[in-house]
Amino acid sequence: MSMFDGFKFRKVTSPIHRLDPRAKFLYVCVVFVVAILFNELLPLLLLFLLQIPIIFVAGVQREWLRSMRGAALFAVIIFVMNFVFTYFFPGSIAGIVPPVNTFSEYFLIFERSLTLTFRFIVLIESFSVFFLTTSPDRLSLALQQSHVPYELCFAFTTAVRFVPVLAEEAQTIMDAQRARGLELEGGNFLKRVRNYVPVLIPLIVSAIRRSLELAEAMESRAWGATDKRTNLYVLKLAGGDYGLMFASFGGLALAVFARFYLTIPSITTLLAL
Amino acid sequence: MIEVKNVSFTYPNGVEALKDVSLAVNRGEFVAIMGQNGAGKTTLVKLFNGLLKPAKGEVLVDGVSTRKVSVAKLARKVGFVFQNPDHQLFSETVEEEVSFALRNFGFGKRAIKKRVDWALGLLGLTQYREASPFMLSGGERKRVALASVLAWDPDYLILDEPTIGQDHRQKEKLRQFIVQLNAQGKTVIVVTHDVEFVAECAPRVVLMTQGRILAEGPAVDILTDRNLLAEASIVPPQMTQIFEGLKDFGLSEKVIDLEDGAKALLDFLGADG
Amino acid sequence: MKGSLPLVTSRCTLAIIEASNLTYTYPGRKEPSLLDVSLTVKKGEFVVLTGPSGCGKTTLCRCFNGLIPHFYGGALEGDLRVAGLKVAEHEISELARHVGLVFQNPQNQLFSLSVEKDVAFGLENIGMLREEIQKQVDWALTMTGIEDLRDRAPHELSGGQQQRVAIASVLAMKPEVMVLDEPTSFLDPLGAQTIFEVIHDLNERLGITVILVEHRLDLASKYADHVIIMDEGKVLLDGEPRGIFGSEEARLIGVGIPKATRLYQVLERRGVHLRRMPLTSAEASQLLREVLK
Are C268 and C255 in contact (CB under 8 A)? Predict the structure, then answer.
């Protein structure tokens, strides 16, 4: 199972799944803003931990862990890069004058890099929750009701609908060409790219043919009959959605207050290092 | 000889496609593997050229286990024509398409030319040599796919649902072609749910259902066994249906061929005077 | 009298499709795909349209709902009226409410992530009110026997189920005519049988005129009131099934005449006469029993 499974929608019902995607998107945006507001580790750790109960209520722990695992590599890269950068240019951290030599200073740099890494992790965390609990259908509906042109929403849902079909087709094409002696593993990079041509071309041709057939089918079902297209399903904001939006705005207000009116100690100072 | 010994296979998504299947196909045989969509026919034949490896049990091609050899090597002996020719076609000309596998298998330039000439001639495609395969009709593209497999003259030829989308005349030509190939010594394995086609070819029939081999034997025995066919969700051939309604007259039920049926009726009526 | 319903329901003798001297060439091609095609289909008929590959049946289907000429372009000559509308003069989106078209590949006519949404697609496009859409979707699902598939995703369905969804989504728009272009090509015989039964049911119960393009004449012929055989862009045979399937011309064209009919012909030649020409195996059995006694 790949990292991408951490973002694929799972058909499970939970209170989180039932929430309107627009409310959830607002929540994700608020998380994003709050994550950027702070340079200290403490609030970001808090933000990370606060979302954990949401994941459990939604029942998507296993998939979420997979997305975290996938993000782990990037997280490490971000951490290392930041550590090295801050080590050589520690001016961004108050109170350090190069060169870095005390343990407490090292720890500050470590903490700063961890903070920036957690910013990334928190974002992945909230995006993962969003996509795991929002069906592409409802997402498309949310987009439509947010006045995104229908053609784009339709393109989105159709693309999602055909992903498993394309995946299967790619596998079949690879099998068909392997059965003609095509080697898809091994060889240097250039050779491997060339070897994929007999797989890509049938895929692309098939995609073009499919688009034509889809267009015919759409036309035959009165596509474009009227500008005022209606919808069988309609998203309506309910109590839970308003609750989430209220909590998000509340959280944002608190965060802004904390950022500008409170001094948040770094863990280094707390541990009296 | 292709031997399947107690093979079980489950797809990654959990579908148990084959359950303890055993089968032997001798050189020079003509075998039809029949069953509903989902019975496991295509899964079974994909084991013959190593595209799939058995989870349990063994598949031996001419004595060598498919687990020990690459797909490319097995393909040299076991040719596989896929159901949809568009999953294979990618070249600029028919000639290039037909020579693709030959190049993969390392044939020399002169050998390639000879074989391509032969394969194109065999399938009536010589005039399309320089044509783009994408510009040909559906039936012609099917012939190009077949030519590209026959070009390397594999000992065993597998055809996956060759009659789909074909009209009556095309099926007739295909039938004659396959029978001729088999008469020339090629082992032919056809995977199909087209009962009429099998009734007209009268090969050895292997009947599958839900991942198991239900029965096997001459077509005239298998296709006239109502109970077997019902279990495999297959409709009997038209002639068999006609003769089923006549069994109380003492006429044999084992009729799948038009000429045989007519003869049986005429003999019966002639005998009556 | 205007405004009063005719007392005879179901099969009236009004023509619902009238084609006169229809000729069509695809853009960029030199040879026409349809040559001087004239035919009449009466309301409520079940028409089986067949012929060798490339004979023009698919092209003709696309004329019925206006894909030709509006989607494909090209040169369309002659006259074609469907459900009273002149095809060349009306948009596809308007014709779609009178003529539904079901295609060969089940996969490529389903766009949504749930069956219910797919069936509603056409109705949403014409701007119908939600409550009305729900009613018609429910009705279409019931008529095609797939209510239990309502919330399923198309990718999870078998080919036969997908085709029934396609039929339901076309049916939901309550067309007078339903055209099906080789709908069972990718299905196994049992799946094909189910589709024919669904279509036959719609034809019988709702009076929808059906035009079915098929190669499997042994399965489809028993439902047909009217058979049309094409070859090389022309209509060669047009009439009732028995006359056509039994003809020498049909044999020469090379369509898949039912074995029951062929058996009848072989026996005729050898002096054994059955009371009637059978189209189906069951019929042949019955007729043979009479002779064998």
Answer: no
Residue A94 has pLDDT above 80, yes or no: no
Q: Which of A135, A216, A225 sits opposite C125 (nearest CB)?
A: A225
Neighbours of chain C (3+ CB pairs under 8 A): A, B
CATH 3.30.565.10 is right for the domain spanning B73-154: no
> Looking at the domain covering B1-62+157-165+174-234, what would its CATH class be?
alpha beta
Q: What is the pLDDT of residue C7?
A: 46
User: Domain segments of chain C: what residues?
Assistant: 15-241
Which residue, among C259, C270, C280, C293, would best test binding to B if mutated, counting the most B CBs under 10 Å from its CB? C259
What average pLDDT does this structure show over C75-101?
94
Dist. CA B117–CA C277, nearest whole Å: 48
Q: Which of A212, A220, A223, A231 to mutate to test the interface with C (most CBs of C within 10 A)?
A: A220
Quickly name the fold that domain C15-241 has: Rossmann fold (3.40.50)
Q: Which candidate from B235, B258, B262 shows the least CB-CB separation from C190?
A: B235
Which region, left, alpha or beta, applies to residue C51 given φ > 0 means left and ψ of -120 to 50 means alpha? Answer: left
Chain A residues within 8 A of B46 when measuring between CB atoms: 175
Centre a 10 Å sphere on the Cβ of residue C10 and count the other Cβ atoms it contains.
11
Q: Given an 8 Å threshold on Cβ–Cβ distance, is A221 in contact with C96? A: yes
Residue C175 near chain B (CB below 8 Å): no
Q: What is the pLDDT of residues B33-89, one digit of tens each?
A: 999 888 999 999 999 999 999 999 999 999 999 999 999 899 999 999 999 999 999
Residue C255 near residue C240, CB atoms below 8 Å = no
Which residue in chain C is spatially nearest to A211 when comparing CA positions? C108
Sketch the domain layout of chain B as residue ranges.
Answer: 1-62+157-165+174-234, 73-154, 237-273
End-to-end distance of chain A based on CA atoms, in angstroms? 42
* Shortest CA distance from C253: residue in chain B: B169
Contact C98/C175 with Cβ under 8 angstroms? yes
Q: What span, in angstroms and rounded, lies between the C-alpha atoms of C269 and C94?
A: 52
Can you tell me the distance from the alpha carbon of C198 to that of C168, in angstroms, rounded to the nearest whole number?
10
Chain-chain contact of A176 with B82 (C-beta, under 8 angstroms)? yes
Angle of CA points A185, A189, A190, to nearest 5°: 110
**Min Cα–Cα distance to chain C from B110, Å:** 36
Contact C177, C208 (CB under 8 A): yes
Q: How much is the pTM?
A: 0.89
